[in-house]
């Protein structure tokens, strides 16, 4: 079981919030590599009367999460969302590869955007039994092993070529600072704008234009951790036309201004 120690993105106020919980991430086995991007486990133990509200702007992947006596499917997330931590508890999660679940979903993936489904039946595995098993284990290895065993039958339905292509396209957006528009992505990928829009709608449910803006905002959040009082630095570093465009992205996706975000750092 290999730990995933890569940089975390999409966690708001990451430096400040990290003291409230313990997060571990693990890569899947080779057998599940085209189905699962990572397994993640988070635990917290807060004093009585104390709570922590964690806000996130996650990747557009589908997730399966397990809490005591509950399993939930989370569709692609298009906006910031929060989770309130109280007392002593934890969540076990599966982050699926982009597009991997498309063959299993009863409806087009864009119908699951910002949607939560309790004990989804379309995954065709006994999620109630898996939830019980996870509740009975007390170490990460046994939990990951149980998840892999339960999810392994789904691998047969994964369309590997589609998963690889859509993952590559999103990685280009995330890692290439020269991509500011769908035209830029088309030039980098060799695909037409129409093809990109069709593939993103089919396998992610969100447009390439939206994801370009979203990951630009991820970069802004990372830079604010380093330069919390310098909005002008963000405008220059991320090549925004002006500060007004930066503020617009913050409001549209995070529902707050850069100033409000900085105030809470």
Task: Give a brief rundown of this model.
Helices cover 40% and strands 18% of the residues. It is α+β, with helices and mostly antiparallel strands and 265 residues long.
How would you explain this protein's 3D organization?
With 265 residues, this protein is an alpha+beta fold. It has 2 domains: 14-156, Jelly Rolls; 160-263, Homeodomain-like (Arc Repressor Mutant, subunit A). The protein contains 10 helices and 8 strands. The strands form 2 sheets. Strands 1-2-7-4-5-8 form a 6-stranded antiparallel beta sheet, with helices on one face.
How do the SSEs run, as a string of H and E? HEEEEEEEEHHHHHHHHH
Q: How many domains?
A: 2
Q: Largest beta sheet, briefly?
A: 6 strands, antiparallel
Give me the CATH fold name of the largest domain: Jelly Rolls
Q: What is the number of beta strands?
A: 8
Q: Would you state the CATH class of the largest domain?
A: Mainly Beta
Q: How much is the radius of gyration in Å?
A: 19 Å
Give me the CATH architecture of the largest domain, please. Answer: Sandwich
Q: Fraction of residues in helices?
A: 25-40%
Gross geometry: globular
**First and last CA, distance:** 34 Å
What proportion of the residues form beta strands (DSSP E)?
15-25%
**SS summary, helix count:** 10
In the sheet with the most strands, the strands line up as: 1-2-7-4-5-8
What's the rounded overall pLDDT mean?
A: 89
Q: Structural class given helices, strands, pairing?
A: alpha+beta
